[in-house]
Design brief:
By secondary structure, the chain is an all-beta fold. It contains 1 helix and 55 strands.
Length: about 700
């Protein structure tokens, strides 16, 4: 593990927009934004996920007024910001212009109202004061409380429908086996009517009179739903649900619908690709779906319908979909059977929300901390899209830095001029070469800027990158595995100590915030902010044993930001990767069909897993082998063959359903069956033609 630092930076705000479309950044400086809502005045409320390590998190709602992000937060909340939680959503009351009410979804932290030592998700109402641009914490009215919380799959859909009711989309909360149970919140779409005393159940909620069912439930069978959108013509609601390993889907909201999770995913049984079996009658297939590309996966986290006249007529009513993993935009057209899907643009960024408003589609990017506008122009020339790479990003003076714009894209293939401004307010150099060097001679943090112009005067949106020139002692990141000190990789359940080591200690650093940490969990092509804004020279991080859908391609990156006493900030990073297990599941005798993390797999199935992370195995109760029936007896670990007798040892596992913590390396789990009876063949009597039965 040891030490590490960032060697180069890349900035590319998106490329490949269709003819006539461009993006411009309207707002930056947001901290992990998750959702936004446009006020009737044109101002924007923005939810920030929050920073901290766990229940000590702080989340904010920010205000964009007059095109500028206001320094004073609208509201600050005590939240649990662990992994996929924090401040997840906000929405306006349908009568906001009159009552100034807005609703938020957050995981409560240790200083939240009513804290009893346990985190859970809460839906609350607050009142916005337009004069001050704030909302008093005392205006909080808790609408729906004690919604179960988990580190994954809490959900995030919060939307008022055309019927005036509030729709709340909950994930499986890490317990997919409870999704089909109407007495639980897991994997449900709720529908309520907020009141000044809390909420009421709409009279036509489909399970209101079902014994044992939660009356708030409107639909079920969801995995990790994140956003809802209403069709501009008829108000029909559509719900995006993030899939597991195979499919992303959009469902049409219908009373009493069961969208199938964990039995179904996309148009197929969970884990299967087409061709596959159609949904049984009790399940409702999605109206739109697409398969994950190999390795990259997918995560459908934002959707919005095109409205108004800001785009050409052919875009009216189109549904735009953003995939967080692929960082792409797709576009769907409503058909009689659902939607027809087509690619729109790549490189759109890690979007958590999209909203149509004046001027076009507004894009909220969680990692860039920006709001961008996707606008359309009838101008014949399309401006270029700039890309900037720099190396190195950190070092003592004199520091020679190379800037590269090799990734710049121009749809019209015209000649390009590159405008380089290495120091804010300093000289700008213009070149026709996409490579430029500059020497920094004094300590400081420099925001370098690149803007690209084409032969017709079209200008790209400026892109920036940070350069830190520092002659003092630079810290290193030390990672220590407290669970297994000799191991350089991680396993589920490990306790990691992260430490900033610097010659001279904290001399010359900001006494209040000398070091700030962020930990990101990387999964496929996307990241989950696990810890943000943790202040301290060191800390301890316990790694989850949850298997995140059975995936093994997970790793962590630790970011350390050192702040000097004159305000200069220097960032370094370090990665740690998993210790893997190669698991083989087989049966003796015969070949059983197993359930592995909820997916049906054949005998002798081999898969990778992170050592120490929970995996679920289930063997069938009986097995047909040649001409006999076998009854499940036990599992063995590392066993080969079928022993005539077995004495109780640590490798004997007696139950059909197992939750295992696999060790690193090669491991075999074998389900053993005992012979119980022959498989008799029964024949019907022959019926000759012309005779009765």
């Amino acid at each position: 593990m040891g030490t590490g630092s960032v060697a180069q930076a890349q900035v590319s705000p998106g490329a490949g927009w269709p003819p006539g479309f461009s993006v411009t950044t309207l707002v930056d400086g947001l901290d992990t934004p998750t959702d936004m809502a446009f006020l009737p005045s044109g101002e924007i409320l923005v939810a920030e996920k929050g920073w901290g390590s766990n229940v000590d998190g702080i989340s904010r709602i920010r205000l964009v007024r007059g095109g500028s992000l206001q320094a004073t937060p609208v509201l600050t909340l005590s939240t649990n910001v662990y992994l996929d939680s924090g401040l997840l959503a906000l929405t306006l009351d349908p009568h906001f212009a009159r009552n100034r009410h807005f609703y938020v979804w957050y995981a409560i932290g240790q200083n939240a109202r009513g804290w009893d030592g346990t985190s859970y998700n809460r839906i609350s109402r607050f009142t916005f004061d337009p004069a001050t641009g704030t909302a008093s914490p005392g205006s909080e009215l808790v609408i729906l409380d004690r919604i179960p919380w988990a580190e994954w799959h809490n959900g995030g859909g919060l939307h008022f429908g055309p019927d005036g009711y509030l729709y709340i989309a909950l994930g499986d909360i890490g317990e997919p086996d409870r999704v089909q149970d109407l007495s639980t919140w897991n994997g449900k779409l709720l529908r309520i009517r907020p009141t000044d005393a809390g909420y009421e159940i709409p009279p036509d909620n489909p399970f209101r009179e079902t014994p044992g069912a939660l009356p708030e439930i409107y639909a079920l069978g969801l995995r990790s739903p994140y956003r809802l959108a209403a069709h501009p013509d008829d108000g029909t609601l559509y719900l995006a649900d993030v899939g597991a390993q195979t499919w992303e889907e959009v469902n049409r909201v219908q009373a009493g619908a069961n969208y199938g999770w964990p039995v179904r995913e996309g148009p197929c049984p969970q884990g299967q690709r087409q061709p596959c079996e159609s949904a049984p009658t009790q399940y409702t297939d999605p109206i739109l779906y697409y398969a994950h590309p190999p390795v990259l996966g997918g995560a459908l986290t934002a959707l919005a319908f095109s409205t108004g006249e800001v785009y050409p007529p052919e875009y009216r009513g189109k549904l735009f979909l953003a995939d967080f993993n692929l960082q792409s935009l797709q576009m769907a057209t409503l058909t009689e059977d659902g939607f027809a899907l087509e690619a729109f643009a790549d490189g759109a960024g890690a979007l958590t929300d999209m909203e149509f408003a004046t001027g076009g589609l507004y894009l909220l990017n969680i990692y860039r901390g920006t709001i961008q506008l996707l606008y359309h122009s009838t101008a014949a020339n399309r401006p270029p899209t700039a890309s900037l790479e720099i190396a190195p990003t950190l070092g003592p003076p004199p520091l020679v830095v190379t800037f590269s714009a090799a990734g710049t894209h121009d749809a019209d293939d015209s000649a390009l001029w590159y405008h380089w401004t290495p120091e804010p307010g300093g000289q700008t150099w213009v070149t026709t070469s996409p490579v430029f060097t500059h020497t920094y001679t004094a300590d400081g943090s420099y925001l370098a800027t690149l803007q690209v112009f084409d032969a017709r005067g079209g200008a790209s949106e400026p892109v920036t990158a940070q350069v830190n020139v520092y002659s003092g002692a630079i810290p290193s990141i030390h990672l220590e595995n407290l669970t297994a000190p000799q191991r350089q990789t991680f396993q589920g359940g490990d306790r990691l100590r992260f430490l900033a080591v610097r010659e001279g200690g904290t001399s010359g650093l900001d006494p209040e915030r000398p070091y700030t940490w962020r930990i990101d969990l990387h999964h496929n092509q996307h990241t989950h902010p696990a810890i943000t804004g943790y202040v301290g020279e060191e800390g301890i991080w316990t790694l989850s044993r949850e298997n995140h859908g059975g995936d093994w391609n997970l790793w962590y990156r630790f970011y350390l930001t050192m702040r000097t006493d004159n305000g200069q900030e220097i960032e370094l990073s370090r990665e740690i990767y998993p210790d893997l297990s190669r698991i083989r599941v087989e049966s003796q005798p015969g070949e059983a069909i197993f359930s592995v993390n909820g997916r049906q797999e054949p005998a002798a199935y081999i898969f990778k897993a992170i050592a120490g992370v929970e995996q679920q195995l289930e063997a069938p109760p009986t097995l047909l082998y040649k001409d006999g029936i076998g009854q499940f007896a036990y599992w063995t670990m590392f066993a080969t063959g079928w022993p005539a007798a077995a004495s109780p040892t640590e490798t004997i596992l007696p139950t059909r359903t197992l939750t295992i913590l696999p060790p690193a390396g090669e491991v075999v789990y074998t389900a053993h069956y005992t012979y119980t009876r022959p498989a008799y063949r029964a024949f019907l009597p022959r019926i000759d033609q012309g005779e009765g039965p």
